[in-house]
């Protein structure tokens, strides 16, 4: 008899990505909501009301500046006709634009790649095809061109129930349809591992449309089995040594790469996020890593890799999880190069790693730890960027100072250095070296008193206006007794966006100021307490900010994760958000994804004439839509986007958005 997992309309890998599990931060460090509430309470505002008028009075010019809607609309930096919000099985873009599917899961990347056949999947074929669940998208120009370059794309995770035929059975329980998923074979696990990682592929714009060059000399797939090197302070430490790697310097693969970045010197960085789901088994009794792993939720066991490979079973390889949760740097100019896990940048559930060159030439990376009640970080390189010597930047990420943010009620933020021997980061608290501090970055930040945030995701520095935008997706675990007149909202379902101004415009500064740019959600519902400008239409508001981008004009674009029939009555999408002048906090919908999908990316080409977006996990979930609720799986998905063919499953894809007739996006 085939063993099945417990019935559930939502699948385990989906739940892992949603990160709805209990928070793992055990500290009593103050939450961002408590600090926002205390800050505004000190200004003497009324308590006990969440009316929109009270919210508007509280944040004043921060978010409700556009009392005159017409005036705000006139001052907007975005000139496009807004798309209508909604829910269906297709993607939609604002009028006057084309949204063309550029790369789909399984698309061949090399001249000798096999064509995609979902009924005959193999690890060998997948390793030379576009991977699954595209997330971060980056562009690296070839010869400085905005129309010829390398597209770099993360493949965060896999949804086997949407990938493989014949593994889902539907049963009736309590009048509802539930799904049972059969265990995966080793061959299917191997396909999953090959579908993780990243893609580097040459693309070119021809007659206004982007094309993939399968003969590109720099094309490459990175997977969960690609050989990598540990570099920086943790390399060679006893806590990263395994039976397969007694040196503690060689790791096979990367996985759960969420957002990422492209460095000023043209390398591709991948951020390892929800690594806990890949490990199963139990540590040996009394093992020294028990507390470390508990802080990261390891093992969670959403994936079955440990049933086939010892390195994912804690009982057999107890140190293996310490080799994941890092930032990975890839030299895209050498397809044979060894990717390097840059341990100086800390180990946690990295959402991304966006960077900017500071005034003194050092490079600053902003890093979010995507879990409820975890932290915002930045890493400042020790060395400086050399624009004229690519080789001089080769190991910039191996030395520098990692900082964690502590937000204060007076609107200031302190960036606390995470350095062994400073403050509580000493032997008395169990740290023997900087390597120990970095392996347990979360615990180090706990001890420093960092501010507990509402799922810090993408963090984007803006080189035009000098600001830094922090996406805080939501926090459904916040308790009602934390609510007061201004903020935070209990069970913060819709998230908010923080804007940081570093002192003197210096991104390396250890102190700055912060403001709330937006509290998200439906502004027509008073209890939600959203703070979009009054010029924002019924289509323009959003919840659950996740990824973001700043185009070359310094304009902010926000992608969402978690909207849907029950949460907001609309799918996820890409919104243009004004941050300056009378239009500040005005938002407009530009693109939306099909049912079940998350909006990832986004990325603007250097000339702003293309917006690349990643449509991730389309068709996922078992939410109620069109009046009925059911699981969505390979044989019966809620959409067959983007092919809409009966013999093709739903396929995560990258979409290229261009203006009809040419020209810059939204101007």
TrEMBL record:
Pfam family, one: PhoX
SUPFAM superfamilies per the UniProt record, alphabetical: Calcium-dependent phosphotriesterase (SSF63829)
InterPro entries found in the cross-reference section: PhoX (IPR008557), TAT_signal (IPR006311)
Organism domain of life: Bacteria
Disordered as annotated region, ranges: 1-30
Extent of Basic and acidic residues compositional bias: 1-11
Name the UniProt record assigns to this protein: PhoX family phosphatase
């Amino acid at each position: 008899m085939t063993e099945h997992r417990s019935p559930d309309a939502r699948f385990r890998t989906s739940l892992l990505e949603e990160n709805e599990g209990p928070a793992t931060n055990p500290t009593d460090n103050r939450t961002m909501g408590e600090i926002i509430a205390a800050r505004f309470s000190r200004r003497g505002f009324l308590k006990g009301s969440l009316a929109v008028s009270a919210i508007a009075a509280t944040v004043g010019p921060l978010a409700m500046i556009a009392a005159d809607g017409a005036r705000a609309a006139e001052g907007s930096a975005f000139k496009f006709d807004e798309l209508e919000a909604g829910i269906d099985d297709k993607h939609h873009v604002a009028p006057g634009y084309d949204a063309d599917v550029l790369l789909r899961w399984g698309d061949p990347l090399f001249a000798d790649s096999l064509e995609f056949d979902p009924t005959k999947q193999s690890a060998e074929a997948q390793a030379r095809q576009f991977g699954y669940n595209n997330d971060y998208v980056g562009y690296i120009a070839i010869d400085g061109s905005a129309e010829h370059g390398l597209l770099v794309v993360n493949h965060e995770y896999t949804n086997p129930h949407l990938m493989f035929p014949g593994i889902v059975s539907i049963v009736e329980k309590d009048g509802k349809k539930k799904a049972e998923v059969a265990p995966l074979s080793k061959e299917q696990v191997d396909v999953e591992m090959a579908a993780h990682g990243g893609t580097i592929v040459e693309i070119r714009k021809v007659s206004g449309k982007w094309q993939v060059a399968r003969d590109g000399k720099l094309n490459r797939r990175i997977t969960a089995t690609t050989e990598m090197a540990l570099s920086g302070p943790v390399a060679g430490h006893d806590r990263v040594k395994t039976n397969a790697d007694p040196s503690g310097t060689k790791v096979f693969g990367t996985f759960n790469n969420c957002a990422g970045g492209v460095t000023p010197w043209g390398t591709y960085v991948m951020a390892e996020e929800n690594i806990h789901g890949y490990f199963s088994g139990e540590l040996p009794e009394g093992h020294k890593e028990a507390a470390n792993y508990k802080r990261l939720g390891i093992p969670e066991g959403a994936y079955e890799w440990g049933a086939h490979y010892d390195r994912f079973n804690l009982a057999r390889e107890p140190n293996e999880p310490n080799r994941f949760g890092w930032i990975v740097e890839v030299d895209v100019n050498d397809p044979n190069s060894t990717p390097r896990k840059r341990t100086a940048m800390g180990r946690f559930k990295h959402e991304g790693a966006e960077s900017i060159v500071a005034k003194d030439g050092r490079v600053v990376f902003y890093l979010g730890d995507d879990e409820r009640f975890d932290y915002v970080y930045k890493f400042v390189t020790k060395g400086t960027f050399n624009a004229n010597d690519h080789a001089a930047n080769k190991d910039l990420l191996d030395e520098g100072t990692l900082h964690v943010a502590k937000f204060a009620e007076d609107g200031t933020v302190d960036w606390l250095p995470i350095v062994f021997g400073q403050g509580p980061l000493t032997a008395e608290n169990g740290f023997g070296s900087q390597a120990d501090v970095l392996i347990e970055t979360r615990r180090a930040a706990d001890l420093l008193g960092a501010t507990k945030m509402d799922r810090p995701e993408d963090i984007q520095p803006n080189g035009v206006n000098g600001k830094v935008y922090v996406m805080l997706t939501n926090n459904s675990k916040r308790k009602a007794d934390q609510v007061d007149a201004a903020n935070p909202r209990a069970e913060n379902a819709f998230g908010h966006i923080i804007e940081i101004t570093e002192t003197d415009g210096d991104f390396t500064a250890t102190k700055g100021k912060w403001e709330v740019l937006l509290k998200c959600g439906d502004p027509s519902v008073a209890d939600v307490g959203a703070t979009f400008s009054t010029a924002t239409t019924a289509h323009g508001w959003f919840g659950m900010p996740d990824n973001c981008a700043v185009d070359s004009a310094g304009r902010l674009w926000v992608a969402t994760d978690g909207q849907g029939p029950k949460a907001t009555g609309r799918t996820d999408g890409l919104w243009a958000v004004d941050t300056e002048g009378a239009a500040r906090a005005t938002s407009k919908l530009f693109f939306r994804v099909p049912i079940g999908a998350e909006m990832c990316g986004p990325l603007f080409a250097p000339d702003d004439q293309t917006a690349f977006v990643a449509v991730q996990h389309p068709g996922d979930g078992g939410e109620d839509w069109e009046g009925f609720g059911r699981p969505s799986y390979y044989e019966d998905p809620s959409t067959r986007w983007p092919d809409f063919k009966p013999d093709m499953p739903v396929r995560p894809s990258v979409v290229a958005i261009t203006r009809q007739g040419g020209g810059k996006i939204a101007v």
